[in-house]
Amino acid sequence: MFRPDLAIAVLLLAIAGPAFSGDVPSDFDACLDSLAQQARADAIPAALIDEVLPGLQFQPRVIELDRAQPEFVQSFSGYLRGRVSTRRVQQGRLLRFQHQDLLERLTHEYGVPAHVLVALWGMESDFGGHTGSMPTLDSLATLACDARRSEFFTRQLMAALRLIERESLDPGAMRGSWAGAMGQTQFMPTTFYDHAVDGDGDGRIDLWDSVADALASGANLLKNLGWNPGQRWGREVSLPDGFAFEKTGMEQSRSVADWADLGVRRADGGALPQADMNARLLLPQGHAGPAFLVYDNFDALLGWNRSIAFALSVGHLADRIAGGGPLVTEFPDDERRMTTAEMAELQRRLADLGHDPGEADGILGPMTRRALRNFQLEQDLIADGYPDPETRARLLDHEG
């Protein structure tokens, strides 16, 4: 959707000077002037603009982190093990008990279960233990003055200024991630402005120091993202011998009854529940790893963070906090880890062979998985959309 205000921001930033990175750029002050013009056009009070914007500092480390690419493609098993630890499960169970009254109230008001809220809290900030130490306004201004994602971060900076005005925040005390995410729920400023709520009734919203505000805001966001009360996010499942793995993936939805007809069962071997719901089947580490049937509430988790690994980990952590056990299916032995450069090369080979994986960015996303499944089908391989060693060898050796 076209946003005139953002178009103005891009024009102003273009006038301010060319893109920059690395050392403090000579045109950063000019960019701050153009951001001040944008803020005035957005009806942000002049006194606030004059107080905050001239003192903002360029943060070279933010640009370094924004440009940084991981050397290796992290497996789902590595991602999940690093986030769903025994310590985090135990702490989550304890905090669920300690905040039982608050969580019951939030479940009643927003329809989001306590264990899901606590899991998100744990994933985002380790239950408030790590909310970030970077100066939020400096980070946002640095990224707004960098051409790569200027429009997005200009909008975030404007929202942060509105938050200072609305919530009487201390600009110098606003700290968060290098990209500007704040508080125990790690909300970006626009999410904070649009979805955060006063959970403790003190008349202001404090996502840093108020557990009630943080959890209530998380519940409100999930509700607004379409969370369905009384439904699961998904579950681990088992698959029969000879299963048609090409039926998996986020783009292929079937009724729970249809999945049952295909032989899908609960991970413990029991029958799937009789439910009038659609679901998708995900294999984050290929056919040799655990399989997950995910429902509509999984989309709400993806709305919070577009990473499938994040959403699956939140769901599993929530189940563990609620008393569930570890995954039934063990992860396959880790083969040699792929570098992002190797993944990008696989993506280029897929594209050359007519299978569109999207941008060759070195990331194993849904489009790349679909392209891999199509290639695997052509090659009579198990079409699970996962680049196992055989698939990689076949793809790199393929002559077209």
Describe the model:
It is built from 18 helices and seven strands. It is mainly alpha-helical. It folds into three domains: 140 residues, Orthogonal Bundle (Helicase, Ruva Protein, domain 3); 88 residues, no CATH class; 58 residues, Orthogonal Bundle (Muramoyl-pentapeptide Carboxypeptidase, domain 1), CATH 1.10.101. The strands form two sheets. The chain has a five-stranded antiparallel β-sheet. It is globular, with a radius of gyration of 23 Å.
Helix content: 40-55%
So, CATH architecture of the largest domain? Orthogonal Bundle
- C-alpha-based Rg, rounded: 23 Å
Number of helices: 18
- How does the overall form come out from the CA principal axes? globular
Low-pLDDT runs: 1-22
Largest sheet geometry: 5 strands, antiparallel
CATH fold node name of the largest domain = Helicase, Ruva Protein, domain 3
Sheet-strand content, in percent, reads 5-15%
Count of beta strands: 7
Kindly report how far apart the N and C termini lie. Answer: 40 Å
Q: Could you spell the SSE succession in H and E letters? A: HHHHHHHHEHHEHHEEHEEEHHHHH
